[in-house]
Specification:
Layout lengths: L8 H19 L8 E5 L4 E6 L12 E7 L7 H7 L1 E2 L12 E6 L9 E7 L12 E2 L16 H12 L21 H12 L10
Antiparallel strand pairs: 1-2, 2-5, 3-4, 3-6, 6-7
């Protein structure tokens, strides 16, 4: 005779939530290096990112190169980077882990722009190209509406889905994978974007 035991649905749901939450906090304790916007009004966009070091996450990088294009990246980020326009006037890098900010002005209202950034150390060694940020998805993934996209948005979505947390002011910003449904897959997608250089959120708006 075979015995089986089926967990109650509520218990199973909370067990999954517990393991996912533990995984998030234990695995992704560092700062995100993702490029994202905290302000976009059609003609200007304020971009944020986390400063790298000159030796991984240690020290101070020497220079930034921010590039802009009206062409989507596709799969070939190297070709996209080479064809994109370098944005002048970036500040010198801050200490590793610092939040950096820069406003790009003179954008054409109604046009979709794509941005990416790299950093170099004093020896001229350049980092890989960051994620490609698009103004088409401004506010997407800012689940808690605080103007930043970070670990707190992951937690907010978890609480909203499984712990009776507050409703998001703009639910569409929680649909980070753009499939029209808000579920745990949106958190998985957001984790990948923030900490694994995954594709940018593209909310179903």
């Amino acid at each position: 005779m075979t015995r089986s035991f089926v967990l109650p649905a509520t218990f199973s749901r909370h067990l999954i939530l517990l393991f996912l939450t533990i995984a998030v906090f234990l695995t992704f304790t560092g700062e995100s290096s993702a490029l994202y916007a905290v302000m976009y009004d059609g003609t200007s966009v304020t971009l944020h990112w986390t400063a790298p070091g000159d030796d991984g996450d240690i020290g101070l990088a020497s220079v930034y190169d921010l590039r802009c294009s009206i062409e989507n990246c596709g799969l070939d980020s190297a070709s996209w980077w080479n064809a994109a326009v370098s944005v002048p006037g970036l500040p010198s890098p801050s200490r590793a882990g610092s939040t950096e900010s820069f406003t790009v002005n003179g954008l054409e209202d109604g046009m979709v722009y794509y941005f990416a950034i790299r950093a170099a150390d004093e020896a001229g060694n350049w980092s890989a190209v960051s994620n490609i940020y698009s103004t088409a998805y401004y506010d997407c993934a800012d689940a808690n509406g605080d103007g930043d996209i970070n670990l707190l948005d992951i937690v907010f979505i978890l609480n909203y889905l499984y712990r009776g947390g507050p409703d998001p002011e703009f639910p569409e910003n929680c649909d980070t994978n753009g499939d029209g449904v808000i579920n745990v897959l949106d958190d998985v997608y957001l984790i990948s974007y923030l900490y694994k250089n995954g594709p940018e959120p593209h909310c179903d708006k």
